[in-house]
UniProtKB/TrEMBL annotation:
Organism lineage string: Bacteria, Pseudomonadati, Pseudomonadota, Alphaproteobacteria, Rhodospirillales
Catalytic activity: N-[(R)-4-phosphopantothenoyl]-L-cysteine + H(+) = (R)-4'-phosphopantetheine + CO2; (R)-4'-phosphopantothenate + L-cysteine + CTP = N-[(R)-4-phosphopantothenoyl]-L-cysteine + CMP + diphosphate + H(+)
Protein name: Coenzyme A biosynthesis bifunctional protein CoaBC
Protein family per UniProt: In the N-terminal section; belongs to the HFCD (homo-oligomeric flavin containing Cys decarboxylase) superfamily.
Names of the cofactor(s): Mg(2+); FMN
Entire protein: shown range: 183 to 410 of 410
GO molecular function: FMN binding; metal ion binding; phosphopantothenate--cysteine ligase activity; phosphopantothenoylcysteine decarboxylase activity
Length: 228
């Protein structure tokens, strides 16, 4: 998929992609995490780079190799992911396209211990949780540094499209890629994905395909949109 001139369609565009889970510390040896593999976010980053974009991938801990052609920033917590994304957004060259595919932990432990918690005979510790910053909502806020196209994901159960449509409005992003993470589906940690692309002008449901294929098709949709 190249333009007539042979120039890659996203040449000269800067993209920011988040991927993977975040790890939220309980103490120096323990953390709260989720089942995200990072496969979908990494595939999107690779596909955008293949179309010529200058890609910064901000990723939580995964077992995946760095995607070719991307600048990778490794983080662990949601707060570190936000800081890395804001640094990328506020760099000299502005971000044109942001894709938030990370499964950011919604909560972190309030006042995580800097010493290892011990069984001291007083019973299990109570973990108080506090909400993490919302990276997608922050990047979606209006302002001179807002990327022209901000895309979020929505991991849902139940009425996936309706819930994700509401989420798109709440977050203020342009597109939402919604997927069904009910038990028995293969999405979380699996190789395939069944997604619905929710835009202001309607919903496009794609057939089940590999996460690499979803990444490639999404990158092409982004390139077509950016060319308009
Ligand atoms: N997201 C984010 N920062 C957070 C939480 C979510 O950037 N602290 C992003 C995800 O990367 C995804 C989108 O927001 O692109 C939606 O994530 P999701 O977990 O589906 O939505 P939440 O707003 O966290 O709502 P809930 O989990 O309660 O459904
Ligand atoms: Ca969430």
């Amino acid at each position: 998929f190249f333009t007539e001139s042979g120039r890659k369609p996203l040449a000269g565009k800067r993209a920011l992609v988040t991927s993977g889970p975040t790890h939220e510390p309980i103490d120096p040896v323990r953390y709260i995490a989720n089942r995200s593999s990072g496969k979908q976010g990494h595939a999107i980053a690779a596909a955008l780079a293949a179309l010529g974009a200058d890609v910064t991938l901000v990723s939580g801990p995964t077992r995946l190799p760095d995607p070719p052609g991307c600048t990778v920033v490794a983080i662990e917590t949601a707060r570190e992911m936000l800081a890395a994304c804001l640094a990328a957004r506020d760099a000299a060259v502005p971000v044109d396209i942001a894709v938030c595919a990370a499964a950011v932990a919604d909560w972190r432990v309030a006042g995580a211990s800097d010493r290892k918690l011990k069984k001291d005979g007083g019973g299990p510790p109570a973990l108080a949780l506090t909400e993490n910053p919302d990276i997608l909502a922050t990047l979606s806020q209006a302002g001179p540094r807002r990327p022209a196209l901000v895309i979020g994901f929505a991991a849902e159960t139940g009425d996936v499209v309706a819930t994700a449509t509401a989420k798109r409005a709440r977050k203020g992003c342009d597109w939402i890629v919604a997927n069904d993470v009910s038990l028995g589906t293969t999405t979380f940690g699996g190789t395939d994905n069944t997604v619905h692309i929710i835009r202001a002008d309607g919903v496009e449901s794609w057939p089940t395909m590999g996460k690499d294929a979803v990444g490639a098709r999404l990158a092409e949709a982004i390139a077509a949109h950016v060319a308009d």
